[in-house]
Amino acid sequence: IQFNLQRTSASCRYLVGFHHHRRKIATSSYVQRQFESRSLSSAPVTSPDTSVGSRSNKDITTDNKYSTPLITDEGIKIFQADPNTASSGLGLTWGSVLWPSGSCLAKYLYWKQQQQRQRANDDDDVGIIDNSTRILELGCGTGVVGLTCAKLGARHVTLSDSASELWPILRKSIEANDIDTTSINIYNLDWRDPSTFLNPSITNSHHQSNRYDLVVAADVLYAGMDGLFARTLASHLPSSDEIDGQKPPVAIIACPFRTDSPLFNFFGIVKRLGLELDRLEDGNGSAAGAAPGTNLCEAFYESSFVPLCGGGEGEEKIRWRHVATDPTFSSLNHDRVQIFRVRRISGRSADARAIRRVGRI
Prior knowledge:
Elements: H1 2-27, H2 29-37, E1 70-71, E2 77-78, H3 100-118, E3 134-137, H4 144-151, E4 156-160, H5 167-176, E5 184-187, E6 214-218, H6 226-235, E7 250-256, H7 263-272, E8 275-281, H8 296-299, E9 304-307, H9 313-325, E10 337-344, H10 352-355
Parallel strand pairs: 3-4, 3-6, 4-5, 6-7
Antiparallel strand pairs: 1-2, 7-10, 8-9, 8-10
Helix pairs in contact: 3-4, 6-7
């Protein structure tokens, strides 16, 4: 009887996870349609010899359908892989596929830089990338956001993900985009293991600073992962005091709308960790975003970050719930993606050093 109960419990966990991934595919079916219909470039790019991690990692880009890169509207070549070939968990690695949130965030950063070139007096420099900008991408997956930042001229980009199955396709994409390997690296950052977090007050093994100007992440918030991501994010947003009075980094994250959205709980955790959130909105108060093929000037016209925190506690939570469960989207935000800016509030909570020591949120 005990054996049957254990087997039934395991089967239930499998089915719950399976149906969760089916819902995720359904909400992003345009990715598969776009991938299958797009004319891709011809020859695959081989992995460089200087790989990250174990050389025994299996290169999962073996299917012909995934052997050539998808090219984004911004001209970034992205290699993908069949998620069904991974060996861990349910045999699925969903980070190996390009999802709408990553594409949307990459478009926003691309548009932001183009706008800055035209409007040199723009006071809002959040998301502006130049040759002094150091960037960390959390849960990078295919690396579309970080790779876009690298092509925009960032000084250095760290693509972090604990799924080693993704590293071969990341290396392929780095080489395909002719990115100088001294200006980009792949790092095994495990949200469950604070010892892998990048402490900005020290240098790494390559004698490079772990300080970042911008932290980016796309489509990394799932039910049950909100606390882990919040701790990881807060740990990489140090206070000014922790980095010798320098300007503290800012994070920009992109999240697709989900019926089981963990955003409401995430907002509360982030506030307790001393961070403040703003949402990118158009002039009508709807979430601004851009899908592939849309005009970026129209998609982000008059968009700005609007605070989610502030006011009375009751009013604040009403707004959180609306954004988490019933948001409105701009007319060109076809994939229903929300973009958030996250910053540390000075003196409001323990700094990132203390958060790194927290075992659980």
